[in-house]
Design a protein that fits this description.
This protein is globular. With 276 residues, it is of the alpha/beta class. Helix 4 crosses helix 5. It is 36% helix and 20% strand. Strand 5 and strand 6 form a beta hairpin. It has 10 helices and 12 strands. The chain binds NADP nicotinamide-adenine-dinucleotide phosphate (NAP). NADP nicotinamide-adenine-dinucleotide phosphate (NAP) binds next to helix 5 and helix 9.
Amino acid sequence: MLTTGTKMYGVFGDPVAQSRSPLMLNCAFRTSGIDAAYAAFHVLPDQLEQAMHGIRALQFGGVNVTIPHKVNVMKYLDEVDEGARMIGAVNTVVNDSGKWIGYNTDGIGYVRSLKEETRMMIAGKELLVIGAGGAARAIVYALAQENPQKIWIANRTLSKATELAQALADYGNIESVSLDELSSHVQVDLVVNTTNVGMFPNQEQMPVPPEFLQQNMVVSDIVYNPLKTKLLQEAEIKGCQIHGGLGMFIYQGAYAFEYWTKRSAPVEAMRNILTQ
Ligand code: NAP
């Protein structure tokens, strides 16, 4: 029930009707006994500025922002955290006593999900990230903070992988590789798909051939529709440990919840409501 003390949160996107964040975050507030509510707001690109003024005036606790606002929202904030600046995108905005601060919880959400769900130690390992878009950028940045031996980036458009590797070169040993050269050049402990390949309605596609997968690899896919992509199915057949994309979504929301409330997120309740 909403009260006069209910703290308001939400997600800004265009489109936004498909968002599962209200379901997940309202469950988190309810489970934690916090008097707060979270709604989806359809904000058109030319109305983002007014929407940001609106939530300041209404003293919201914060918002998530999704496509197409993740870059433009930075103009309307008082501060952008270093990670979000390097990634070039904000997905979580926090009202810190009237100061509006932007964060990116996608990459750190991915890494927390990977560590919690696979128990993998990333330090000292060789990693392969397939893709060089927005999600890849956040994930490579966050993986680099974990001190891996090396991060390879492969992408359909190789030049974008090279640009990304160069942009994040200060954070670790990061190098691009063409998809064709993967098998001959690269032996890795973790493969992460950050492309759309394998996502509904193209569930039969995979970003690397099955022959590339080896039993000792952890194979991870951030696509979560379907929950078990073709890549993960093939990896499972090879005996690899697999890691699906739902966890990244849950933990990016868990970090947002924690930044807003300074309380631990009820991750299992959040997962249960999404999978019910
Ligand atoms: P993006 O910025 O548009 O980047 C898309 C990436 O996929 C690019 O590297 C692109 O390669 C590659 N790609 C697209 N179609 C391809 C194809 N047919 N063959 C080979 N490569 C292809 O998108 P994004 O924001 O990074 O999101 C990527 C995926 O991650 C989406 O499926 C999204 O749903 C998922 N995602 C999941 C979560 C989560 O919480 N689990 C969070 C964010 C995103 P080029 O550079 O060659 O175009």
